[in-house]
Design goal:
Length: about 350
């Protein structure tokens, strides 16, 4: 399983999947931060955006993700001030420029984006910037990987671990996966050659009966991670249970803002919001895709009701979503796979 959405897209875009032997299968996991964000979080963000005097700043992928009854894009069309930014630092700068408006940044993502968000919270506190807050939805990857294995629904022989996340937390963060579950892990970069090398390293461990954490992406990742980034996260955030789309509640897999920075916690600042009753989109199997239980092709809505132009589920919205990758590159992969199977049949004959 490649748990990183960037790996999913790279494996499709480069044609790597179609080059793998028949007995090696890549599963896409819950490594797309937009995809695993729950409807409840989106509904809360939409409700905040609807308040007078509030600007919501977010990464672009979040705009079109459907919540229970609406989306940030629809809220913006209805008059809400929703702005796309490229980093949390842009959101902080906007808060400085507009002291008469509340600026709420949607803090989603894994350990890759959390340090920068932590820095903005610390900076806002130091500056006494009262109009900046974060709706924190950050999650951490290793616990989700463990939850997939503990669930036992999908048999996973090895993990291609995310390079971006691992550059922050270090490869040692996955040691308990290999030790407790006997599943090998390899941290990989994002070129086709990186992913192919990581797959080879995983297969070699399986053949040799080993279960260890190895680093293919050694040019960017070490064993211990980025000390300054980890220190920034530890200062501002603390672990908490988190709700994941497709996985449910995963203990100690989330980050919440500490009491010391509560003045900049949008969940506290905007308590008591009225949210629509949670309900799943009829027929959407995005959660099953995120667990690796099915491929997007097995969802009845895929390519019919659910397309990039009219997404029903989050997995079709994000550029790193498995459904978006299958929709964009899947036909090419299936064509190559069919040709490969035909060639194998000819050789057998």
């Amino acid at each position: 399983m490649e748990v990183c959405g960037t790996h999913t897209m790279a494996a499709f875009r480069t044609g790597l999947r179609s080059l793998l032997p028949q007995n090696v299968r890549l599963l896409s996991g819950p490594g797309c931060p937009v995809c695993v964000t729950t409807d409840d979080y989106l509904d809360r963000a939409i409700a905040i955006a609807g308040r007078a005097g509030v600007t919501v700043a977010t990464f672009g992928d979040m705009l079109r993700v459907p919540g229970t009854v609406s989306s940030l894009e629809k809220a913006r069309a209805a008059g809400a001030d929703v702005r796309v930014v490229y980093s949390p630092l842009d959101a902080l700068a906007e808060a400085r420029r507009s002291p008469d408006r509340e600026l709420v940044f949607l803090g989603i993502g894994f350990e890759t984006t959390a340090p920068a968000v932590a820095w903005t919270l610390r900076q806002a506190a130091e500056e006494g910037l009262q109009n900046y807050s974060v709706l924190c939805g950050h999650k951490t990857m290793p616990r989700a990987m463990a939850a997939l294995l503990a669930g036992g629904e999908v048999h996973i022989d090895g993990f291609v671990c995310p390079g971006h996340v691992s550059a922050i937390i270090g490869a040692a963060a996955y040691d308990f996966i290999s030790r407790d579950f006997g599943v090998p892990c390899v941290v990989a970069g994002f070129e086709a050659a990186d992913i192919a090398a990581a797959i080879e390293m995983l297969l070699r461990q399986l053949v040799e009966g080993r279960a260890e954490v190895e680093i293919e992406y050694s040019r960017c990742v070490g064993r211990e991670g980025n000390e300054r980034a980890l220190a920034a996260m530890a200062e501002v955030f603390e672990e908490c249970d988190a709700e994941w789309r497709g996985l449910g509640t995963v203990p100690s897999s989330g980050l919440r803002i500490k009491m010391e920075y509560r003045a900049h916690d949008a969940a506290h600042r905007y308590e008591g919001l009225t949210l629509p009753p949670s309900q799943k989109a009829s027929g959407c199997r995005c959660g099953d895709v995120l667990r690796g239980a099915i491929t997007p092709l097995e969802c009845p809505l895929f390519g019919v009701r659910c397309t990039p132009a009219t997404p029903v589920g989050a997995c079709m919205v994000s550029q790193e979503g498995a459904c978006a990758a299958f929709h964009r590159f899947g036909s090419r992969a299936r064509e190559k796979s069919s040709r490969r199977e035909a060639d194998a049949s000819i050789q057998t004959l």
